[in-house]
Write a structure and sequence with these properties.
heterodimer, A: 337 residues, alpha/beta, 21% helix, B: 141 residues, alpha+beta, Immunoglobulin-like, 4-stranded mixed beta sheet, 4-stranded antiparallel beta sheet, 2 helices
């Protein structure tokens, strides 16, 4: 069996073909492995996001502990009938700041007064020790990057960097405003609206809902979920769903998670005419509506926390009926899993 | 010996390729539908179509309408349909803030409400639907 007996025999080793085949196999294996590695990175980001949701849900619980067992109001709207609504008042994001270790930021906020949070005279008195003219209202708060408010999968800058008085950072997290589309009640039941029973939700505008009003049980009711940044063509980086001051600080389950359905003529958000009574919105127009579906950058679903502080992952294909039922606080639904 | 091992390796490679490329067909409960949308006989140039399951089994979805055509992925079953299409209009006397934020243009719907906010449109989509689903809308009452 010894090679080279005649001096012309085959030497031990690999032929070119064998080498090529081995390289091809390794290539295929790497091709299989690489997406798995990428998925692991995304899974890690999703875990981080889960953690943020948990912290914020617990912040709401702590808020309730200190405020007569009431969740923070989703947003404060002084005049919902005006064109721009005086509705840039503070949202639950601001109200829960002390419970995510942002007490210093919180202490600079003026919750009283009228007008928009960002140009309210009463609001401009304590801003980094600078005068109003240099530094319009709540500059410190508006430009603060709060990591607990950001999903690591969100690649876009959250909010504008400009110092204009209306610019402000956003959050990736939105509270549950129920399953309504805020349309008139006499609208034809064209889309399965009959599949939900109640519009009560653990969060609403101008009212801090009592925990005791969540009769479905806190573990059967959604607390908050995610929203994504949708910059418009002018570079305005509002995620439609979520504004750190107020309007759009929540989502509704009228549409499923990550839906491709229209909520506002093809954009995400409703026309003001869709609201009766008028719901807080950001002025007359249609791309900056007030309520939005839960949306995320995670593949195939969204993270959402329940009112008891637990966090679950909901698939995009979750049954609409289930999803809508989960958002109501007093619908009496059972067997939701 | 060489030939045999080469064949074995080749077969393994083929098998691996099969493993790698199988299972790429998405199975997520959606069915692809496409079709056309016309308003008073004219294709809807730009708009949006939304499908929502009647009775709530399934989920909501939709697609853009471009030059009268749409391609959407929907949950099979009986679906309520809403179609919207807008004309852009400049608002009068926009404030500086509105201009900066790109809010000086509003969209005004030209499709009657019976096709969107109070829609009576319906579509029945079978699993693996191949036939296009077309909508012919009119401005008549």
């Amino acid at each position: 069996m010894k090679a080279n007996v005649l001096g012309t025999g085959r030497k031990s080793g690999f032929t070119l073909v064998e080498l090529l085949v081995v390289i091809a196999i390794i290539g295929i294996l790497i091709g299989l492995l690489l997406p798995a590695v990428q998925a692991a990175r995304e899974a890690a980001r999703r875990m981080q996001c889960t953690n943020n949701l948990k912290q914020l849900a617990l912040a709401c619980q702590t808020y309730a502990d200190q405020n007569q067992d009431r969740f923070p109001m989703a947003m404060l709207v002084l005049n919902p009938n005006s064109a721009d609504g005086d509705c840039d008042r503070f949202s639950w994001h601001a109200r829960t700041l002390p419970f995510i270790e942002q007490a210093a930021l919180y202490s600079g906020l003026a919750f009283t007064g009228t007008g928009k949070g960002y140009n309210n005279n009463a609001d401009t008195t304590r801003v980094n020790g600078q005068s109003k003219a240099d530094n319009p209202g709540h500059y410190e708060y508006r430009t603060a990057l709060i990591s607990a408010h950001q999903c690591p999968s969100e690649q876009q800058a959250i909010g504008e960097a400009s110092a204009e008085n209306w610019c402000h950072r956003r959050s990736c997290y939105v509270v549950n405003l129920g399953n309504s589309n805020f349309r008139k009640d006499e609208v034809v039941n064209w889309d399965g609206r009959e599949s939900y029973k109640s519009k009560k939700a653990p969060f609403t505008h101008n009212e801090a809902v009592k925990l005791a009003a969540i009769t479905d049980g806190t573990s059967n009711t959604l607390c908050m979920s995610e929203a994504v940044v949708n910059p418009n063509t002018s570079g305005y980086k509002g995620n439609y769903g979520c504004v750190i001051f107020s309007n759009g600080a929540g989502f509704t389950t009228y549409n499923g998670p990550n839906t491709t359905a229209s909520t506002d003529h093809g954009r995400a958000g409703w026309d003001m005419n869709d609201f009766n009574p008028p719901f807080p919105h950001h002025g007359a127009g249609n791309w900056f509506g007030a309520t939005f579906p839960a949306k995320s950058h995670h593949s195939g679903g969204v993270n959402a926390s329940m009112c008891d502080g637990s966090v679950r992952y909901f698939s995009d294909t979750v049954n609409l009926q289930t999803w809508r039922a989960l958002s109501t606080s007093d619908g009496g639904e059972t067997n939701l899993n | 010996m060489l030939k045999a091992s080469w064949k074995a390796v080749f077969a393994t490679t083929l098998a691996l390729c099969c493993v790698a490329f199988c299972g790429c067909e998405p199975k997520d409960g959606f069915t692809a539908v496409k079709g056309t949308v016309t308003f008073d006989g004219e294709p809807v140039k730009e708009g949006y179509i939304t499908f929502a399951p009647k009775g709530g089994a399934g989920t909501t979805s939709g697609a853009q309408i471009v030059d009268g055509k749409y391609e959407a992925r929907v949950t099979p079953g009986t679906l309520g349909v809403a179609i919207t299409a807008d004309k852009k209009e400049k608002i009068e006397n926009p404030t500086q803030e509105q201009i900066e934020r790109g809010m000086d243009v509003i969209s005004v719907s030209y499709i009657p409400t019976k096709y969107n906010t109070q829609s009576t449109l319906e579509a029945t989509v079978a699993e693996g639907q191949k036939d296009p689903i077309n909508f012919e809308l009119t401005s008549e009452e």
